[in-house]
Amino acid sequence: MARKKKFLAWFMEKNQLKRPDTYQILQLLFHEEQLLRISHFVDDVRYLPNALIISAEGAPTVSFLCRINGIYYENVAEVIAVLINNPPEELYIRLAFDRELICCPCIEQVAEEPEVEFSERLKKLESELNRIAFLKEEKRLKLQAEIDDALEKRDRDRFYYLSDLYKKFFG
Fold first, then answer.
1. Are strands 51-55 and 64-68 parallel, antiparallel or unpaired?
2. Cα end-to-end distance, the chain, whole Å
3. How far apart are CA 23 and CA 57, in angstroms?
4. Whole-structure pTM over 0.70, yes or no?
5. CA angle 2, 72, 110 (to 5 degrees)
6. Cβ atoms 97, 11 nearer than 8 A
């Protein structure tokens, strides 16, 4: 815990954030021991659930990204509310900064390899892809029903509009 706090303190002191409002999230993590306990600092959050990226100026990454329980957040206040009221079991955090310009003596001690095995991450990714495929098929069937309804009601404009949508997304 002390290493995590030291790393957070260093990051907040030495870096100017691309999105200054994300400083509030860092402060919350620093002061809330329960949140710090579930936090894991990693270099790559791509395949991890409950991921948070906060970037400093000069870092070659997005300024801010937060995904908790499969929901993406752009609003810092919403992220804080979720972390306080419904924290995830684990939170994987990437604090991105330009490592060529700045050296953090504590980074090697803090960065963790997530405990999620590669095969487990692949299973989760496959599950998410299956869910997306299911939703896409569900939307396709619904659009088909809407096209049939427009055809039955002889609503020419609606039929052409919906048919164009179908071709665009499923054609």
1. antiparallel
2. 53
3. 13
4. no
5. 20
6. yes
